[in-house]
Write a structure and sequence with these properties.
Layout (H helix, E strand, L loop, with lengths): L8 H7 L3 H5 L3 H25 L4 H5 L20 H4 L14 H4 L17 H7 L4 H13 L4 H9 L11 H9 L5 H13 L13 H7 L7 H11 L4 H11 L15 H7 L15 H8 L6
Helix pairs in contact: 8-9, 8-14, 9-11, 9-14, 10-11, 11-13, 11-14
């Protein structure tokens, strides 16, 4: 599988603190970090384009286009897991913490206040950090004729990373469970495991990008293997699989999608509490409150 957003492996490793810091991370942490890095690149690309729309054609012929072109015809030698674990070094902060707490590039900014009766759209506007990616994912699902539940799962599958990144499939499924259908919950939870396993019939191939980042001989950890086996034999397998099909293709600079496009789908499939998310006393209300007031010390 090939994405439209090319990732420079050297820049990615540098963003994590160098080869030593990467070696200290387990493979699942690298997977989360890679997706976060790609989301950041997409956000930066969209921001730059919105500020200078008239220069898009010039930019498309400049440096950003070169990373995916150089050496394209030369057979690529992928590293092994051992080669990626040559050194060991700790980090000042944990990679799994959510963006709303540490911010992009390790620094926070002043957040806009949230309405008392906060809606899902309010979180998209003021708190979620992977917005462009999930909007593109849901847009692709809509254009290819997916069901509304799959479209909604694509729209929601990564946004919990504002709260926490590690095991984001499980955290995301838990956060949305009181408000969406069982199929949407299943799709969000198990897309995390399914992304490491190809399904040729469904149109999902294991991406070369993962071979570069995790090693050509990489094997997912035990809990990911178990989750895959469970999901693969489940009646709702395709809901989760279709999230992965629409996932890696959803890092495309130049494609701008607005939340408005999905307002009716959300209205029909998301149970918005009248009290507002975080104030409805649901089992996951505290997760929403944590994003509303992340600067509260206790």
């Amino acid at each position: 599988m090939k994405t439209n957003l090319e990732v420079d492996r050297r820049l990615f490793i540098a963003s994590l603190g160098g080869a030593a810091a990467v070696a200290a991370m387990d493979h699942e942490a690298r997977a989360e970090s890679l997706e976060d890095y790609m989301s950041q690149q997409l956000e930066q690309s969209q921001s730059a384009q919105s500020q200078s729309a008239q220069s898009q054609s010039a930019q498309s012929q400049g440096a950003p286009a070169q990373s995916g072109q150089a050496g394209a015809k030369t057979p690529e030698k992928f590293p092994t897991v051992a080669e990626l674990q040559a050194q060991n070094q700790g980090r000042a902060t944990r990679r799994g913490v959510g963006d709303v707490f540490v911010g992009r590039a390790g620094h926070t900014k002043t957040l806009d206040p949230m309405p008392v009766n906060a809606t899902l759209e309010d979180f998209f506007k003021n708190r979620f950090s992977t917005v462009n990616h999930v909007l593109q994912s849901a847009n692709r699902a809509m254009k290819t004729g997916m069901t509304e539940e799959v479209i909604l799962a694509c729209l929601l599958h990564d946004v919990v990373q504002s709260l926490i990144k590690v095991d984001h499939g499980w955290w995301g499924a838990q956060m949305f469970e009181p408000y969406v259908s069982e199929k949407v919950v299943f799709a969000i939870r198990y897309h995390q495991a399914l992304r490491f396993y190809p399904d040729h019939e469904a149109g999902y191939e294991y991406p070369d990008l993962y071979k570069r980042m995790f090693g050509v001989d990489y094997e997912p950890p035990a809990h990911i293997q178990a989750a895959y086996k469970y999901a693969r034999n489940h009646k709702m397998y395709m809901e989760a699989r279709l999230v992965t099909v629409n996932d890696l293709y959803a890092f495309e600079p130049g494609v701008v999608v607005k939340f408005d496009q999905f307002r009716e789908v959300v209205g029909r499939n998301f149970r918005q509490p009248k009290e507002g998310l975080g104030n409805d006393n649901s089992p996951t209300a505290h997760m929403w409150r944590s994003m509303i007031i992340p600067d509260t010390p206790l």
